[in-house]
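Quick question, first post here. What does this chain look like in 3D?
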Amino acid sequence: MPIAIVFPGSSTGPEDELKARIDQLVRGIPCASVTAWHEGRFGRTGNAHQRQGMMGYFASVYSLLAPAFELVMRPLREQQSGAASGQTLVIGAGTGLDVAPLLDRGITPDLLEPDPTLAAGLRRRYPGLQVWEAAAEDIPAPDERYDTVLATLVLCSVSRPRDVLREVERVLKPGGRFLFTEHVGHEDGHIGRYLQQGLEPVWRPLAGGCRLTRHPACYVDATDLVIDHLEPVRQGLLLPIVQGAFYKAGA
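> Answer (accepted):
Ran it through. Tokens below.
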């Protein structure tokens, strides 16, 4: 089912070009089949013991994989952090790779990380920051606390992405923004999608529960968040990447 793209303000001028770009980007995303694929093949949330095992394994190799990922991700992280403002929460903070660019801009973020090993590492590395060991589906923060919520390569691996976006909406202030950089699934019929679907059953347990075929735009319909922008920033058969922002209306 097509995704409705909504923007504030006038329907004429440069916004039309932005709408057209986003419409073109999301038109081919098979959101219904993405949901069916994940729930039918893997279950909605999976077995808790299996999830804990995957997270423990992934934490043990994450620091080894990070340098290679950062050749691509570092400039994208810096670009994304440059759009953050005010009170900021980083979900899925991992080893803290999003933290330094924020601190460089004078932003002192709160950090959310579900993996105990990674959360402990964040506390050691950033003793002055609030670090919550919790899942993004249940953020331990009050309503409307944050101006910015930021995530990098997070929505691919959470158990319930719609619940994550509901929580993001809850903790954002009116007018606040959710900034994300995520690898996404290709549209139906793309050769890359067949590759992603074929590899996902093997990829997922090796990569901390990461799904290759997800797309953030498939889950925003569970909230009142509005797509502010959504842009492809890296092509690739296996891991195309988009950057985007959803905002909370009502400011």
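The domain at 14-248 is CATH 3.40.50.150 (Rossmann fold).
The beta strands are 88-91, 110-112, 131-132, 146-152, 172-183, 225-234, 241-248.
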